[in-house]
Sequence to fold (619 residues):
Amino acid sequence: MTGDPDPRDDALNVPYWQIDEAAGKNVPRRVIRTLPKVTSPVVKMIWQAAPRSAAAVAVLQVTSGLCAAFGLFATTGVLTELLAGGPTADRVVAALPALLLVAAAYGLRGAMDIGVAHAHARITPAVRRLAEERLYTASLEVELSAFDDAGFYDKMHRARDRGLFYLERSTDNLVELIGSVLGILAAASSLAVLHPILLPVLLLAVLPDGWAVQRSALLAYASMARAVTLDRRVQMVAELATEREPAAEIRACQAEPFVLREYRIVADPLRDEDIRRGVAQARVRGIGRALAGGGLAITYVVLGLLVHAGWVELAIAGTAVIAIRATTTALNRLVLASNQLVEQGMYVGDYLAFLDAAGEPRASTTTSADPKRVQLQHVGFTYPESAQPALRDVTLTVEPGQTIALVGENGSGKTTLAKLIAGLYRPTHGSIRWGGTDDPAAIRDRVMMVLQDPIRWPHTARANVRVGRHDRVDHGDLALSSAAVQSGADEVVDRLPKSWETLLSKQFRGGLELSGGQWQRLAVARGLYRDAPLLIWDEPTAPLDAKAEAAVYESLRTLAEDRTVVLITHRLASVRHADRIYLLHEGELAEQGTHDELIALGGRYAELHDLQARMYADA
Ligand SMILES: Nc1ncnc2c1ncn2[C@@H]1O[C@H](COP(=O)(O)OP(=O)(O)OP(=O)(O)O)[C@@H](O)[C@H]1O
Fold:
């Protein structure tokens, strides 16, 4: 039956991702004050990414500015000769040497500008490359728990989606800014020499437009800050509607209208916000243009009055008009570039804030300690931004060579505990020691973990297994083959058209897709290929068929002979031989012992065991 939406869905109408008015208020108000702060990290980045090209741009731009100044002075010479008395032909001939100087100055300037463009072309891609690597390094190095924090996600998305893009744009704008500053210095210094009063008058023509562009930039940023979460939500819904992974389930659940409704809920306020911003920007731009036009008119009137009063010669006034045009153009470029730099600087700030939040890259630890005995003392763990702890007061010891099993209902904390034992999370209470160390970085090399929902790497079958220990030297693929045989992945690979070299991703031409169970066999092979003394299995066999499951457990028994194993499973029949079984309930250790002890106890474990035994018997 279809009908009105469930009223409980109304929770969707007051979402946390709505427009955030407070975030929009927290933006800077002035460009000039902010400019040095926002440009210095960009300058530093340019210098680190492409020092030679940066030096070339600086030298060529200064030379270009000098040429421009020289050209303007030479122009006065040309105009003086042309406006002198006598026949026109004589005046033109007399002006020729100055004219040649003007042509040479501007020709040289053109050559310098071509050089600037060449050097500039090398800078932006180099900056992007460096910035991307820093971002990816930071996000790969960050503690796993950061990914459970929505604030961190917002920061990362801002840094990745906008920070990188605007860092590139601000590199271009910085080159533009330096060029326009030097252009202004050249033109304005000639103008000041011709008549000092022309310079302040000229500012009248440019400042209003500058104000408008600045306001417009700030409006854009404030709008972005208000809508950033909303924007992310729209992208998420867009992925649901367009990506391959959810496509089947959406159709199977007939959830298409639900996805569209979700889209409308988030897209409508985003559209309204964009309109609000666009209209406000158009208004300030309009005011700025009108004021700028008035300012320029006043500039020319003042120049006319100066000529009329005989304070300025006509030839100098002619050069002044050219200089005014050059200065206005350069000042406008400067205002635009600096305003854009400030706007972009705010996004670049987001990029830098993310690098800060991600912290220093983890020092690559050279000490590698064997986990040996793993001891947990009163360990508690709460996920970031969660009200309830996922684990409470867990104390247990895993002796070297033991196989322990973690069992319990869904959500009881098994995976969380396994990730703590693997050193992926740090406890929020209590302590964990692995042999002689409590530094998770020191044991990471000695842990192999097969996760509940392993990554399907969009790579070859070989890469999917070898990524378990990508730097392992494996002559003749001996370790690869052995991991494949133990996990049953060999049967999967044998059927692939290009064997180990088959690309496992439908998103690329020639790629193939595997079934859930086939992927899982590769994931198990990946864990085995890693080959480490502490082995953590989180429901490794759930999607496997009976034959593959039996093969994996057989391999597990062999592996367990000289390893410490932590096994998580809901199939209690598979944990019967574990040295010790821990039953978790709502984040606490509710029962522990051997299989026989727990059955004798007659508690939750015994109850679950009976239930499963009856279920399989009925089946
Ligand atoms: N990334 C996360 N962020 C916040 N809470 C989480 C996160 N992962 C798990 N939890 C919460 O922590 C609790 C324990 O989850 P955990 O995945 O450890 O349970 P589990 O016993 O492995 O469950 P299952 O048998 O379903 O795999 C649950 O209440 C869950 O909602």
